[in-house]
Amino acid sequence: MAVDSIDVQLPSGKSYKQPIGLFINNEYTLPKAGKKFETINPSTGKPICEVYEAKEEDVDIAVEAAVKAFKFGSEYRSLTSQARGQLLTKLADLMERDLEVLATIESLDNGKSISMARMDVQLSANCIRYYGGWCDKIHGKTMEVENSRFMYTRHEPVGVCGQIIPWNFPLLMWSWKIGPAIACGNVVVLKTAEQTPLSALKACELVKEAGFPNGVINVLSGFGKIAGDALARHEKVDKVAFTGSTVVGRQIMKASAESNLKKVTLELGGKSPNIIFNDADIDQAVKWSNFGIYYNHGQCCCAGSRIYVQEGIYDKFVEKFIETAKATVVGDPFKEDTFQGPQVSQLQFDRIMGYIRAGRDEGAKIEIGGERHGEEGYFIQPTVITNVNQKMKIMQEEIFGPVVAIAKFTDIEDVIEKAHDTSYGLAAAVFTTNLKTAIQVSNRLEAGTVWVNSYNTIHHQLPFGGFKQSGIGRELGKYALHEYSHVKGVHLNLEMPAPIY
Q: What pLDDT, on a 0 to 100 scale, did the predictor assign at position 1?
């Protein structure tokens, strides 16, 4: 049964039509159990609306729709690669057309500032368009071995891709997952984060408008322990891609192993070191480091939450960094000058405050912040912590909030050892004016991404993913296409005689 959209009131007094059903076969449908769950406005702590919840039986229905769409000879499988690319580029165009409404939904449901939300939507459209351009450029190779036979490779789609996305960049992660999957000719069943289901559901209207055949892209709202687990264990899902915590990533791998050994890619947590050398442009280093931790309220897997400053400029850097942090505009995400909005949920708020308390209890010094901002919603003051050591909880575990620890280092060997003293390896940054230092340190860092004299400048053409416990596989760029395709080797006998025994 089709489900109508509902009117959702915005803080401006205006309203928009919000889909709330499960998006299966290009229609918003009712789940079998007919149950809903609330999505909360993190700026107020009050409900925005209710959306329908997918359970195991609904995952089955969505997967069957995807299986049918992927069947050889189907409308989708009959499309040329060029036509598939046109679908993606059309979707990107529609996202840009509706940029303001999508950005508004992101700010409402996630709490990110409207200026950052607009940037997210544009980056999402850019990513989708980029992969639209790849569709007709994925091909194999021929191998010249000998005249009696001909050999070649084919890059073929994996099939049904289960995708589970996080709440920190709802629409951007939707695009990162869908783009390469469709570029390679796959079909998708995607589960959104239960905290932030709204923008992905709204974007599915554009999927249908762009002309995607039924069953190619299916999007479910639901909880990880139920719908997410069902997707990861499903025998007809050929691949699962997950972005989220390392703890859940382990569960995804286990579910794959216990079911059909589906292909797995994981983009997980981080505890990224941001290294400032004595010769760095200190003003630029302060500005970029501030952006590196407080961007998206610190809810970034690659956030620069450990800043290591060489002892010659440590005091000066800390002083300037604190001044900059104090100037961070925290508040209503719909105000144009707001940079930092609320944390996404009460659970996340409490978790971050717990880390701040742990730092204080272990002897660290809270230079600024460390408290709630305002009286409602899940706002936390930008927090700067010093007097830390490597064994402290706040230096080892991912906080995922607007909290940064600043420590000293002596030389390259010292900072490399400290940078690697964690189970993560997602990202890192180096600030220096010495090209030799920049290259040597970048090459030695155990991280999937290294920024030099910048931070958080992710681009869809460059791969993103982690070393160590920060994940398996890569998102973005050409490298992501490898995660969504199989390579087949074909041996064609031209005139080679059969062996004689």
A: 67
Distance separating alpha carbons of residues 389 and 220, to the nearest angstrom: 43
Least confident of 2-6, 21-25, 111-115: 2-6
Residue 431: its H or E element: strand 427-431
Mean pLDDT of 395-400: 97
Alpha-carbon span 361 to 197, nearest angstrom: 37
* pLDDT per position as a tens digit, 337-383: 999 999 999 999 999 999 999 999 999 999 999 999 999 999 999 99
Cα separations (Å) of 478 from 35, 224, 374?
40, 29, 44
Cβ(122)–Cβ(99) below 8 Å = yes
Among candidate residues 359, 340, 328, 241, the one with its CA nearest the CA of residue 298: 340
| Of residues 136, 130, 35, the one with CA closest to residue 82 | 136
Rounded mean pLDDT of the chain? 97
CA distance 9 to 47: 11
Give 53-68 pLDDT, tens digit per residue. 999 999 999 999 999 9
| Section 457-485 average pLDDT | 97
Signed CA dihedral, 415, 420, 297, 393: sign only: negative
Closest C-alpha among 193, 192, 194 to residue 204: 192
| Spatial distance between the Cα atoms of 304 and 290, rounded to a whole number of angstroms | 9
Ordered DSSP codes for 128-196? HHHHHHHGGG----EEEEETTEEEEEEEEE--EEEEE--SSSHHHHHHHHHHHHHHTT-EEEEE--TT-
Strands of 142-146's sheet in order across: 142-146, 149-157, 485-493
Look at the alpha carbons of 308, 311, 317, 321 in this order and tell me if their dihedral is positive or negative. Answer: positive
| 116 contacts 338 by C-beta, under 8 angstroms | no
The residue assigned the tokens 């699962």 is: 240
Residue burial 47-69, b: 16+ Cβ < 10 Å; e: rest: ebbebbbbbbebbebbbbbbbeb
Look at residue 377 in the predicted model and tell me its pLDDT: 97
For 456-469, what is the mean pLDDT? 97
Tell me the residue type at 433.
T
What integer pLDDT is reported at residue 500 of this predicted model? 84
Q: What is the 3-state secondary structure (H, E, C) of 39-60?
A: EEECCCCEEEEEEECCCHHHHH
The one-letter amino acid code at 2 reads A
At residue 292, what are phi and psi to the nearest 5 degrees? -65, -30
- Positions marked active-site: 267, 301
